[in-house]
Amino acid sequence: SRIYAGSGVSQTPNEIIWEKGEQENMQSQTELRNILQRIDHRGYPAYKDTRGSYDFRNYILSIDHVQGDPFASPSKVSVHVRGAAAGFPADLYQMKCRRTALEDYLLRQFGRELEKVSFKAKGSGKSGLLSVSRCGQEVLERTACQLDEKSGDLVLRFEVGFPANGRTVNSRELEKIFFEFLPQCVSRSLFYKALDEKVVKAVADLAEDQEFIRSQLKERGLVAFVADGAVLPRESGVSGRPMKGAVRFESPASLSVELELPHHGKLTGMGIRRGITLIVGGGYHGKSTLLKALELGVYSHISGDGREYVITDDTAVKIRAEDGRSIQKVDISMFISNLPNKKDTKKFCTEDASGSTSQAANVVEAMEAGTQAFLIDEDTSATNFMIRDELMQRVVNREDEPITPFIDRIEELYREYGISTVLVAGSSGSYFHKADCVIQMNQYRPVEITESAKAEAERFPMPPSQPPRQTKPQFARCVKADRAFREDRMKMKTMGRDGISINRDTIDVRYVEQLVDSEQLAALGYLLKYAQCHVFDGKKTMGQAVDYLEKLLVEKGLAAICESSYLPCGLAMPRRQEIFACVNRYRKLMI
Ligand code: ADP
Ligand code: MG
C-alpha cells in the first residue's frame, strides 16, 4: 500500500497522494521517460518498473498497478489535479449533490477525450487501450472521478493497456500515450477554463434542483413527482436514451403540484401522494413505462434524459416475483402461514422460492431495509400473491389457503408501517376497493379516475375477508460468514449487470431492478468481501450489519471497503436497499 492506506483510510485518497507524493516518491516526467527508454524491447514484466507517481506540472500521473502481460486486465492509472490548478469555483462542489454531478460531468468529458485516442497506440493484446467508466443515464458517485470537497483536488482513475510487441515491451507507444495523448485529454477536460462555464453551472444547478424536489416530496407528503413535459419511454428495450417523438407527460389537473425550484424556477407536474395509488389502463397505454420511470426516479438523471424531473422517494423499492431465489430465515408469516409441510414461515428458508414466497420475502426484506414505498407491476407479480378472486374464495376455504394476498395487507402496510404502494394493475379490479388514488393511463396520458372507480367498486362489494391478525415481522436475523476468510484470498468478479461471483458462488441480482450499473455490482462485491471478513460476525443482525456498512460508505467512501493498494477505478455507489438485496441473495452466508 504505497499510496493508499488500504481499508480503513480516514482521509480521502486524493489527499493522501499529495502528502506522500510530495514527500517521498514523486518523480519527474523526465524520470518516467528514462524508465520507458531503458525498458524498451525487454520482457513485458519490465513495465512493473513504471509504478509510481510523476509530476506533469499541472497534474500528477500515477501508475497504480501494472498489468502482468499484454492480454491481462489493463493497467490502472490515475491523474491528480490540484484544486488550484483545476480551478473550479467552490460553489460548484461544496454541496454534495452538486459535487457528484460535477464529478459525473467531468468523467463523461474525460471519457469522450479518451475515446478519441484509444488504440491510437498500437500493439498486441490490449495495447493502447484507454478506457474509463462509461456512465449511463443516471448520475452516480463513482471511484473513477472524485473531487475533494475542501480542496477541490481532482482524481480521475482509468485503465491503460500498456503496449507490447508480442510479449515484449513497446515503450515508445506508451510514451506517446503518456506524453502526447493523455496530456491533451487532461487539459481539454479537467480544467475549468477549458470547459463551457454555462454548461458546467447548469449541471450543478440541475442536481441541486433534483435534490430540492426530493426534499419537497417529504414536506408535501408525496411518494413521487413527475414533471409536465417529461419523456418517460426509452428508445428501445436495450437503450436508456429517450424515445424520439414520444408523448410528453402531462399531469391531470387534480394531481398537479407546483414547485419553485432554486434554479429552474417554477415547475409543475403530477404529485403521487402517500398512501395507495393504483395505475390502471388498457394494455400498451404506458402503465409499465410510468412505473419504470418511478423505479429509476430514486436516482438523478442527466440533462437531456427526459426524466430529469421525475423524482421518487429515495427509499422506494420495486417489488416483484423472483422464482428460484434463495430465502434465509425471513419472517414471511404476514403473507404465508400454515404451509402443508408445516414449514416455519416466521423463519422461512428455501433454496428455490416459488413466485408467491419470493415476492413475500421481497416485501418483508424491503421493510427491513427501511423502505417507505413499494412499486409493484402486476406484469411481474405472482397472481396468487396479489389477489384471490371471489369464486376461488368460495370454493377453497380460507383455512386451506396458506397465502394472505397482498391486497389484504396493503392498507395495514400503510397504516402501521407508513409504507405507501404504487401499483400497476391491468386486470384485477379488486384493488379499486383499497386505493386512495386511481390514475388511468390513456394513450400515454394520465387521467385521475378515483371517484368513478370508487363508485363502480361500491357496486361490486368485495366478499368479506378476514386476514389473520398479524404481529410485526421479526428482523432479528444474525449474519455470519460461512468460514473465516482472508480478504486478499477472495476472488470476486461481476457478470455485467446480472450477478456477482465471490469464490465462484454466484449472487443473482438480475431481478433487483433498481441496480442500474455494473459498477454498482462491483462495489457490492467489494462490500460483501469486506463484510465477510470484518462485519458478518454472527452477532450483528442483518440490519445492524448493513447500517455499519452504510455508515462506512457515507463517511469514508468506497475506499473504505477496498483492501487493495490502490482504489479500483470501476466502482459506483449502491443504495442501502440494494446492499440489503445483495446480502439477502448471497447463498453462502449463515443466517
Ligand atoms: P402497458 O404497461 O400499459 O401495457 P407500456 O408501458 O409497456 O404499456 O408501453 C407500451 C409501449 O408504448 C412501449 O413500447 C412504450 O415504449 C410505448 N410508450 C410508453 N409511453 C409512451 C409515450 N409517452 N409516448 C410514446 N410511446 C410510449
Ligand atoms: Mg405493462
In terms of topology, how is this protein built?
Layout: H1 13-25, E1 26-28, H2 29-39, E2 52-55, E3 60-65, E4 75-81, H3 83-86, H4 96-117, E5 130-131, E6 138-139, E7 145-147, E8 154-160, E9 164-165, E10 168-169, H5 171-189, H6 197-220, E11 222-227, E12 234-236, E13 239-242, E14 256-261, E15 265-273, E16 276-280, H7 287-296, E17 300-301, E18 310-312, E19 317-319, E20 327-330, E21 348-350, H8 355-368, E22 373-377, H9 383-386, H10 390-395, H11 410-417, E23 420-424, E24 437-442, E25 445-448, H12 450-458, E26 478-481, E27 492-495, E28 499-502, E29 505-508, H13 518-534, E30 537-541, H14 542-556, H15 576-584, E31 589-590
Helix pairs in contact: 2-5, 4-5, 4-6, 8-15, 14-15
Describe the overall structure:
The chain is α+β, with helices and mostly antiparallel strands. Helix 14 (542-556) packs across helix 15 (576-584). The structure holds adenosine-5'-diphosphate (ADP) and magnesium ion. The site of adenosine-5'-diphosphate (ADP) has 15 residues, from helix 7.
Short description:
This protein is an alpha+beta fold. The protein has 15 helices and 31 strands. Strands 1, 2, 3, 4, 5, 7 and 8 form a seven-stranded mixed beta sheet that branches. A six-stranded mixed beta sheet has the order 19-22-23-16-24-25, with helices on both faces. It has a four-stranded antiparallel beta sheet with strand order 14-15-11-18, sandwiched between helices.
